[in-house]
């Protein structure tokens, strides 16, 4: 009877949990809808195609302009109201001529922005400019502040790992209760038996099991061997993982998300890690490489924010980059005060092992992901491979050497493939297992 | 068997009633152990809150905590550039062409930099002259990271800013009135610096420029000036002649600035049955003497007589004077040889005497030596001994108001340093331009700290028409300013020295662009030789009579006849004559704080970390001086007191085979005590004996108290007739007999049948197929190797070889991966050794005769043999390693996996060549070995591509596998085949004489594959059957006499 009760309560918890999970998704949908509504509203008002305008803006204007923020050029939100449309047309098509002709508004802008002339865009039609104006006139969408009530739901729903633990804990609790119930039932039955004078058969006094075990020497021997072997196995396993830092994900001085860069934005690995092509080291990009893009990207898009990391958080991290490289975003100028970033090194090969990136990346054409794992999904970079010698050797045994179109391999490939009687040579057959190839 | 013997412990036991014996019978210790002292105080023991259990708990806890803490991996930081320089790719080396010009060494070199720090010096192959770096130049990159360098300008002992230094010194210089301002400098040989000095002269009146070379060539400069009207040194191209007679000139060492070995070596490799003949008359055993075909011992005074006689025999004029009859025969032979060779002969001398230098110039002129080019004399020595002497006088007389000392250290290197010191005190303002707080800088009022040449701009005119540029390869490490920059400031010029050079070079550049010149590092402007010389050189070869038919260019010159007469009447000296020389390692001593150079063994004596008096066996016996090997195999020697005039030094003695009787030698450059680490303060300063800046002095030598401990790396001096280690033959035999006779492949017996050792029949191992891929071989030509040691230092730099220090070297724990063995013959020649050994039969006299063969002859033949890991295809070391730490690669290299090595040292024991080196200690980050690897600055020189070995592992030559792998990778990346000559090792790249050639023998067209088929080729200890990948080429000596 009691058992039934308990099972009921357990399933209730499960159901409750699922409900919590679902409640978390609701506010997200609500926000999206609101945003779409907003866009639709403005499109109607300004008489241009926002989508086309966005496309043009991103390809032509975004290098120097932002909608709501000053950059190399002024923030463009509101310009359609500030200037006459005809003036805007001629400005966009050839601003320098306007400055030269002494147009007071044009000269004022020219003076304000350190006499930097805006590029001329004679290829844009008036409709194109209208479209761009429509896009830039879309008012800024304020991210809705989450209601205080929502917070708990977000917390409970964050990460499936937590819910798994919860389920396990619940199961454990259920088993514990079953045990208690069984004990209680047993006790009740006994007391019933005693009350009804039912004779319970007395069990014979047997030799306790541990005594029997000790007396059986064969069993002792087998157990001892088993224990020794298993402890040996675990000790070996323990020692083998010393110095293997698979999964090492240290906290970095700047929260750099490979997911955003390599995943969402599809930036090619070697754009930043360019020395991987020619050098033994892949190179941590110098900060001037970051600034190639981040000179214009001073904040992340709203959509980039995740439940774990808010937009403010990411913008703060970009600010850290600016501090390090000495970039004053408001003045759009370098201050000259730099503060090199001390990254924590994740992939540490011992000094006695020589590894060359260019051999693998340029010559063999190995994908970065083969060793570094799904970097494009990593919010925080971690060590994917064990980086043990066995791991290297296995790959060398299995991987074929890319000899096509490489004159260096012509002769050796012909001779070796004849020798081994194979068409495709593995790195091992090419000599990739010799000690001195990596240890010197 | 038991014994009834009773052992007495003390005489006290004789006394039966002794109370002492009684009381001590039961006591282990004579005195009571004072346990009461620490256990007697009961109260404090009981009051202590720490019980024994607590103590054990603490111990246990702290041990566990320490263990746990040690389990945590270290966090490593990586700091990228903020703005990465365009040309720097981390992990890829950049090369810059620059020039060393420190007043002693002048060479155009390439500097390899990694991530902006110079790590190695390489030869500049574009350079026509002085492109070959010697050992000191190779080591100079370590001097950049010298932790004893001054880090900024100083006023006395105080730091001072450059601004206030400029202001104070400027004011003082302006207020000197009529007193002289003297620039006492090294030889800069720099066109822009000369211009700058004249600017300085124009600004401050009464400026005098005194050039001072620590090791003087003043007499040779004077003689050249008398003969050709220009103060310069004669330039010789040894490659153009086939007969070389040297009288006391160590031209393979540092004679007249050195750098002659590559030209010399070209003529030493027998080609078409011909090679050059080299006759050397000398007192000390020098590198040149060791390489000579015929070496004749002559004391310095005899050398003068020899030269006079040679002049007479060759030119027919002059008189012979008194000459030992034995020497006379040799001079006659040499003269005949010269006459036969005619213009293909060359005579050089190192005698520091204007007459001698004049006579030599005259002989070369008379025979119209092709080697001598009068239009391109060397300009890399300008020092004037007389001017320096005058300066010291002027200083003491109070005539000098300002003294600016740049690049020289007169307080260390002047024989009359005490006079210089008293003079310096009378100078109103003294400024030292120095990198170190050396003996001179210490006494000067100001030290304008200068940068290393790798941090400086500069230009050098190595010889007439051959220019070379110096450019910084790293930002200045410290707050330094180069001499020229400071002079510019003080002359009121606001330009940087870089711009100043560019300006000065507009005339020099001609059609070449500045960037091209800077990229190449060198610029050679053609200087047409004088017409008559061209005609003379075009004249057909023949004996001297033919050449005399061509009218000699008329030079209104000095009276050479009188000079020769003066030479001929030189009296033989009854006392001992000292010749001061410089070692290939330390030179004039500028780089005394360089541990690589200190640990580099001298090529002749094989002794490191020391200088010593070299004495002949006969003189040593007479003076009671000894050398002995002690129980641990090291060398000990007596001390001797050497007195010249008023100066006296006590130096250790080495008995030098080949040292002319009646002469002694001592190296300069040692015994520096100021501005360097204590460990580097070794040897004895010989400069006080360098009276009048003349290397030859009459001395008195007496034995002194005490025994000196040498760090000598080779104690077996003779080959004992083992012709399979160094094969040697004469040119005559080489030309006339089959190579099986003079280069026989050893045979071994199997079932009483003799097989050649290369036969598979007598091989323990199965042969692998080595025909696929690369197969590296290193070829060493014993004929071309001069023993200069550049390869030894290049190997150190490339492979992070540690420095172990004097006491470790003495224990035979030197770490050199590449050593250059030197052997003396015990008979007059190595051939004689072989004959003597072969003649020994039975037990009869074998012991005594072998004993005799241990001692080198009085005037032995010498041979140099570089030995590194032989990379045996059938390597004995590989089979005995219990952990397979050493194994063979398909490309022929014997690999060494340091991380696998457990240090059993079986491999070293089983190596027949003794090339493996064991790390007895941790040599980096260890205060016990306070050399460059113990400080951050010194560690900047380490090659990041090569592991720094730890304690307890074996190491050895890897055949520079990091370099071959890089060459292969570069080719793979470019998708091309590898050309011959691309593969190099550090030693083969450093070898300017062409003795070492490295390459792929599977490339049949490669040079090394051809060398492998050469008749002279043999392997070291071939009979062992190890099949090495290093080969040697039989030494051929040209003993053919005219």
From TrEMBL, chain A:
Top-rank taxon: Bacteria
Record-given protein name: C-type cytochrome
Membrane-spanning intervals of the chain: 162-185, 218-239
Molecular function, one GO term: metal ion binding
CDD domains named among the record's database cross-references: Cytochrom_C3 (cd08168)
Signal sequence region: 1-30
UniProt keyword annotations, A-Z: Electron transport, Heme, Iron, Membrane, Metal-binding, Signal, Transmembrane, Transmembrane helix, Transport
InterPro entries: Cyt_c-like_dom, Cyt_c-like_dom_sf, Cyt_c_III_dom, Multihaem_cyt_sf
Domain Cytochrome c: start-end pairs: 48-140
UniProtKB/TrEMBL annotation, chain B:
Pfam families with a match to the protein in the record: Fer4_7
InterPro entries listed in its UniProt record: 4Fe4S_Fe-S-bd (IPR017896), TAT_var_transloc_signal_dom (IPR030948)
Annotated PROSITE patterns: 4FE4S_FER_2
Domain of life assignment: Bacteria
Chain ranges of the 4Fe-4S ferredoxin-type domain: 776-806, 860-891, 892-921
SUPFAM superfamilies in alphabetical order: 4Fe-4S ferredoxins, Formate dehydrogenase/DMSO reductase, domains 1-3
PANTHER family, sorted: GLUTAMATE SYNTHASE [NADPH] SMALL CHAIN, GLUTAMATE SYNTHASE [NADPH] SMALL CHAIN-RELATED
Name used for this protein in its record: 4Fe-4S dicluster domain-containing protein
